[in-house]
Write a structure and sequence with these properties.
- It is built from 9 helices and 19 strands.
- The protein is of the alpha+beta class.
- Among the domains are: about 150 residues, Probable tRNA modification gtpase trme, domain 1 (Gyrase A, domain 2, 2-Layer Sandwich); about 70 residues, Aminomethyltransferase beta-barrel domains (Elongation Factor Tu (Ef-tu), domain 3, Beta Barrel), CATH 2.40.30.110.
- The chain starts with a helix and ends in a 9-residue tail after the last strand.
Length: about 375
């Protein structure tokens, strides 16, 4: 292990990843597995069977007390007051300009207790923002003591059910419940970042290794494989799930990111509401769209998007789709070029390669 590797943060599963032959890479300050047997195999396993992900690097912050709800209502774009106990929502932590501090999930755990889950590279920034703008709530950063693994895919429920007395089938999508998993107290959440059914399991950080091993053992007969960041990225891209730092950031608004459905105007004031309302009234000038390559080539982040000789946008994410067997991508384009079916081109090494804007998500699982 090199000096640079030792300076990276490690999850409790680092040794397990290396024992399984994972290729490790730096990611958001962490030493994380990018793949084990290969991105294609891992991606296809999640779509057809099940995959297991280490997501202990993600951040977890609780809001507690009578001021928790008002604080979250001001900080986020979605309407937290609509959450029942055990329910979860996807939302945005917004700037005054209506852009992203981060995207996050918000869990209502009890009457005056909420859990938020944050992107790994943003935890310090997010917590600082929350404490500065979320006055009145007790804000507790639990990232350093919370472990998180995700089991995803059509056989995820069957595999996890072997390890818990909780009736997993009774948990709706974007709901959670307390229970045990492999004998450990845990929060079982029917959520994920792959476009497949599955569960994210929160438990004390020092208990994660036991759960990881138990899941791999229970899932082996059903085709479960460990998966790295590579497959996580191609899976989320097929499902058009935005990646902070690529598709969403502090330069693009929630409306431009095609996430207007997480802006709840009727809830009243929140940070960025005025800017977003103004932009809605005036009309957005650019929009995040999905495209598929028509010509031969793979679109990569920051490649220009052109129509004729005019630059009309920029690629934010792009990769071969292992499940759809085509090259796909996301990018912001000027609104007049954003319609589905529009012919565009991606400049790849200064050569225009034909592409077409398509309906997203690229992939949607059968219900």
């Amino acid at each position: 292990m090199t000096l640079s590797e030792t300076s990276l943060k490690q999850t409790p599963l680092n040794a397990a990843h290396r024992a399984l032959g994972a290729k490790m890479v730096p990611f958001g300050g962490w030493d994380m597995p990018v793949q084990y047997r290969g991105i294609l195999e891992e991606h296809r396993a999640v779509r057809s069977r099940a995959g297991l992900f280490d997501v202990c690097h993600m951040g977890e912050v609780e809001f507690r007390g009578a001021g928790a709800l008002p604080a979250l209502q001001r900080l986020t774009s979605n309407d937290v007051s609509k959450l029942q106990i055990g329910q979860i929502q996807y939302s945005a932590l917004t700037t005054e300009a209506g852009t992203f501090v981060d995207d996050l999930t918000v869990y209502r755990l009890a009457e005056d207790r909420y859990l938020t889950t944050l992107n790994a590279s943003n935890v310090e920034k997010d917590v600082r923002w929350m404490r500065e703008h979320g006055k009145g709530a007790e804000i507790v950063d639990l990232s350093g003591e919370t472990g998180l693994v995700a089991i995803q895919g059509p056989r995820a429920l069957e595999i996890l059910q072997k390890l818990t007395p909780v009736n997993l089938a009774a948990i709706p999508n974007f709901w959670c419940t307390r229970g045990t998993a492999a004998g450990e107290e845990a929060l079982l959440s029917r959520t994920g970042y792959t476009g497949e059914d599955g569960f994210e399991i929160y438990l004390p950080l020092h208990r994660v290794a036991g759960l990881w091993s138990a899941l791999l053992e229970a899932g082996a007969p059903l085709g479960l494989v460990p998966c790295g960041l590579g497959a996580r990225d191609t899976l989320r891209l097929e499902a058009k799930m935005a990646l902070y730092g690529n598709d969403i950031d502090d330069r693009h608004t929630v409306l431009e990111a095609d996430l207007g459905w997480i802006v709840k105007w009727q809830k009243g004031d929140f940070i960025g509401r005025e800017a977003l309302a103004r932009q809605k009234a005036e009309g957005i000038r650019r929009k995040l769209v999905g495209f598929e390559m028509v010509g031969r080539g793979i679109a990569r982040p920051h490649y220009p998007i052109v129509v004729g000789v005019e630059r009309v946008g920029e690629v934010t994410s792009g990769a071969p789709s292992p499940w759809l067997n085509k090259n796909i991508g996301l990018g912001y384009v000027a609104i007049e070029h954003a319609a589905v079916g529009r012919e565009i081109a991606i400049l790849i090494r200064d050569q225009p390669v034909a592409a077409r804007i398509v309906q997203t998500p690229f992939y949607k699982r059968a219900r």
